[in-house]
Amino acid sequence: MKISEASRLSGVSARSLRHYEDEGLIVPGRCGNGFRDYCQSTVDRVLVIRSLLDSGLPVRLIRDALPGLTDGSDGDTDAVCARFLDEVQDFRDRLAARIAVLSDQQAALDAYLQKARRAGP
Question: Does the keyword Zinc apply (predicted)?
Answer without folding.
Answer: no
